Task: inverse folding
C-alpha cells in the first residue's frame, strides 16, 4: 500500500511498504537535499522499525551530494578501520567504494564489521552506476534471521562466543598496513590493545590477530535481539572445496588468511555453519538498483550482500554512528 507524507509547502514522499521501505518523491526534479526535512522525519519514524529504506526516483545526487546527504543526519562519517575486505576512499569525507571483489563472485549476507566489537549503526549505499546485469545488494532482516536460527544452536553460539583469527598479507589477504591505515607497528599494537585484540608479529614480519566477539547482539535503542556475526564468512568452510584444499595444503590451518572458532578456540562445526547459511538464504530479499538510488540501513537490524554482475558498476558506501560492545564484559564471561 502506498501513502504520502509531507506538508503542502514541503516535499511530499510516496511510500511503498516492504523490505526495503521504498520512498520516492511525488513530483519530478526533487533532490534528497531539498526533501531532507520530510526524509529526516521519515527516517526518525521508520528506520529502526523497518531496518532499511530505499530512496529512489530523486535527482541523482552524485558522490559529493551523497556524502552531504549522509552527513546531514548529524553524525560524522566514519573511516574504514580494521576492515576485512579491500576498499578505496572515494572522497576525503568518509565515502568508500563498496567491497572490491571480483565481479563474478557473490558476497554473502553480513552486517558490517560484525566480526569485531565495534561497528557503525548506520550505513548508506549510493548506486552511482547500475550494472547492466546483476550487481544487486540483497538485504535480510537480522531479527528474522535470529528468530529462525535453531534455538539450541543460537544459544550455544551466544554462550560461547566467537573467536576470529586473521593472518594478513602474504598475497592471500589484505595487508595489515591497509587494514590499520598505518605502516607503524607501534600504532597497530596500540590499536589492538585498545580494542582487546590479541596480536602476534610472526617471524617473517607478517601479523596474526585474534579477537573474541559476539554471536548475537541486542540493539541499543530498540532492544531487539539480532543475529550479528560473520562466522559463516570467516570460517574455512566458506571457501570452495578446491580452495580449501589448496590453502590447507600450503599454509595450514594456523596461517589461513581468516578463520573463526568458538570463543575458547575449539572448532566450529561446519554443519552448524551450513545451517546458518541456509537460514540466511531463506531470509534474503533482492531488488534491482537504479542509478541514483540511495539505500539506508540500520546496520544491526539489516544485513546486506552483493550479487555478481556484468558491465561497469559503481556503488559507494558511507558509515556513521559507531557503537561499541563492552569488550571487557565479553572477555570476563569467557
Result:
Amino acid at each position: 500500500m502506498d501513502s504520502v507524507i509531507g506538508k503542502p509547502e514541503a516535499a511530499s514522499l510516496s511510500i511503498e511498504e516492504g523490505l526495503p521501505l521504498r520512498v520516492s518523491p511525488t513530483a519530478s526534479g526533487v533532490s534528497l537535499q531539498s526533501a531532507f526535512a520530510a526524509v529526516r522525519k521519515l527516517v526518525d519514524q521508520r528506520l529502526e522499525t523497518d531496518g532499511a529504506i530505499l530512496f529512489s526516483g530523486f535527482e541523482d545526487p552524485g558522490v559529493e551530494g551523497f556524502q552531504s546527504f549522509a552527513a546531514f543526519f548529524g553524525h560524522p562519517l566514519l573511516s574504514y578501520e580494521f576492515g576485512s575486505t579491500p576498499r578505496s576512499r572515494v572522497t576525503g569525507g568518509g565515502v568508500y567504494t563498496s567491497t572490491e571483489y571480483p565481479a563474478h563472485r557473490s558476497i554473502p549476507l553480513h552486517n558490517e564489521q560484525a566480526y569485531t566489537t565495534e561497528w557503525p549503526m548506520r550505513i548508506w549505499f549510493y548506486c552511482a552506476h547500475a550494472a547492466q546485469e546483476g550487481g544487486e545488494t540483497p538485504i535480510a532482516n537480522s531479527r528474522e534471521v535470529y528468530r529462525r536460527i535453531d534455538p539450541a544452536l543460537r544459544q550455544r553460539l551466544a554462550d560461547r562466543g566467537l573467536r576470529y583469527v586473521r593472518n594478513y598479507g602474504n598475497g592471500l589477504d589484505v595487508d595489515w598496513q591497509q587494514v590499520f591505515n598505518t605502516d607503524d607497528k607501534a600504532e597497530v599494537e596500540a590499536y589492538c590493545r585498545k580494542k582487546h585484540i590479541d596480536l602476534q608479529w610472526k617471524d617473517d614480519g607478517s601479523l596474526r590477530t585474534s579477537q573474541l566477539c559476539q554471536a548475537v547482539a541486542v540493539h541499543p535503542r530498540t532492544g531487539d535481539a539480532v543475529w550479528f556475526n560473520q562466522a559463516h564468512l570467516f570460517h574455512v568452510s566458506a571457501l570452495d572445496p578446491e580452495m580449501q584444499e589448496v590453502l590447507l595444503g600450503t599454509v595450514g590451518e594456523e596461517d589461513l588468511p581468516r578463520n573463526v572458532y568458538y570463543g575458547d578456540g575449539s572448532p566450529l562445526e561446519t554443519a552448524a555453519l551450513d545451517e546458518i547459511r541456509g537460514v540466511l538464504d531463506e531470509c534474503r530479499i533482492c531488488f534491482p538498483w537504479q542509478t541514483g538510488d540511495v539505500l539506508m540501513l540500520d546496520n544491526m537490524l539489516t544485513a546486506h550482500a552483493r550479487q555478481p554482475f556484468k558491465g561497469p558498476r559503481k556503488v559507494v558506501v558511507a558509515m556513521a554512528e559507531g557503537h561499541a560492545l563492552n569488550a571487557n564484559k565479553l572477555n570476563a564471561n569467557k
